[in-house]
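Researcher: We are triaging several targets before committing to wet-lab work. For this one, the compound of interest is magnesium ion. I'm pasting the protein sequence and the ligand SMILES. What I need is the predicted three-dimensional arrangement of the protein with the ligand bound, expressed as structure tokens, so it can go straight into our comparison scripts without reformatting.
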Amino acid sequence: MLSLKNINKSFTNGKEKNHVLKDIDITIEDGEFVSIMGHSGSGKSTLLNIIGLLDRQFLGEYMLNGIDTHTLDKKSFTNFRNKNVGWVFQNFKLIHNMTVADNVGLPLLYQGKSTREIREIVENTLNKVGILDKANELPKMLSGGQQQRVAIARAIVTNPNILIADEPTGALDSATTVEIMDVFKNLNVMGTTLIIVTHDVLVGGQADRMIKVLDGKIIGTNYEI
Ligand SMILES: Nc1ncnc2c1ncn2[C@@H]1O[C@H](COP(=O)(O)OP(=O)(O)OP(=O)(O)O)[C@@H](O)[C@H]1O
Ligand SMILES: [Mg+2]
């Protein structure tokens, strides 16, 4: 479970202070699928960066799996993220001179796993997202949808309990969006907590709950009936 209490975040540029997140309270249970929607500039990515443990410069309390994230030093914070959270981005962020298998295996390499172990886990993971046949290709040989599958595989290869995606279908056509959402939803059905920021109502509407952000504030949530 994760809970944010009274989260505030400002960016300061010279003398100007931009108060981006205002008194945010959110609780997300394990296994939920939550979407976050709102206008451009409303603070969605800023909020997601906090939830996904990329940013720890904020005011307020963020508890994840029973840990107060403010109590972690920098290294423990990074380890905590790597253990608990997988990230997926709009533009995939794959490493272009590495094969699909090597991209997906990279987080395991950082964990110090053996080549043999990595190969086995990577194969299983690529199979899960339906692109095992692309293991030895370079990312540029793949379609956008296939590249996003690689990115999802890389995000889940360490078995995180939370999968976080910032506009994951923003660069995809509508048919590919449907396919990628199926991949996400399958992972969610298997137990992964799924948190997606999106502009696309057809994507956000598939969540159990939609959190709406306006000018850095939560203005409502919709519950599926
Ligand atoms: N690193 C940063 N430094 C300074 N200001 C920032 C930074 N990141 C975001 N902001 C500001 O915070 C506000 C919210 O930005 P954010 O990226 O969270 O919006 P968003 O809802 O994700 O928008 P979009 O839908 O366009 O991605 C904006 O005013 C933006 O300029
Ligand atoms: Mg954004």
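Researcher: Any quick observations?
Model: The pocket of adenosine-5'-triphosphate (ligand 1) is lined by residues 11, 18, 20, 38, 40-46 (CB under 6 Å).
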